[in-house]
Known about the structure:
By secondary structure, the chain is of the alpha/beta class. The chain has one domain (2-245): Alpha/Beta hydrolase fold, catalytic domain (Rossmann fold, 3-Layer(aba) Sandwich). It is 41% helix and 24% strand. The protein is globular and about 55 Å long. The chain starts with a strand and ends with a helix.
Amino acid sequence: MQFTSDQRLDDGVRERAFILGEIPGILWTPESAPAPAPAPLILLGHPPLGLRKMYPRLVGRARDAAAEGFATATIELPGSGDRPRWPATEQARADLRRVMEAGEPVTDEIVDALVLPLVDKAVPEWQAALDALLSLPEIGGPVGYSGGVISIGVRLASVEPRVSAAVLFAGSLVPRAVVEEARRLTLPLHVLLQWDDEGNDRQAALDLFDAFGSKEKTLHANMGGHAGVPQFAGDAANQFFARHLK
Length: 246
């Protein structure tokens, strides 16, 4: 990991951009870190739209988490931002747009082609980032995961024992193989669902929540579209992490 920039935001949160191999990322730490103790870490997941586009929402989540004493970090997903594109994934996105515009059902084959290669590549990259982040003196455990892509969150939670709690942003394009992985999860889960999300199938999101095997799982549903998540929903997610990471 090599840091490429270092700045203090206006609320004292320290923001550092880094490169891990070919993967760009950002680390935010609260003003008090590393004293009196290393901060718990939350990994901030996001859709594959590129860090530049997602930055305003990510830094907002990072600031809120820092106010609760958490460090946060994120990385650029495969095929996003300035990273090389995947022709097969681009074709799967085109197929998805075509069937949705035609009002046709989205097949399992399209979902698998779109999501599984991303999950297979992104999760080991998240694990490599976690290795590097936990080697820093200002970062400690335990670790949480917050955000989407929900299939990435499910896979990471199922294979990475250092992730001890997760806040997942509901999504409906979930391969059947990932649903089976969800049945085996045991860590505490807090799932955020926008009831009127124009880009997700609500029933599919509810079915996935039902499939989660965790004994402690909470569904926090709010009226509104994809970008209408209320502030108090974010506050509830931070309270969830305060219970499980402190």
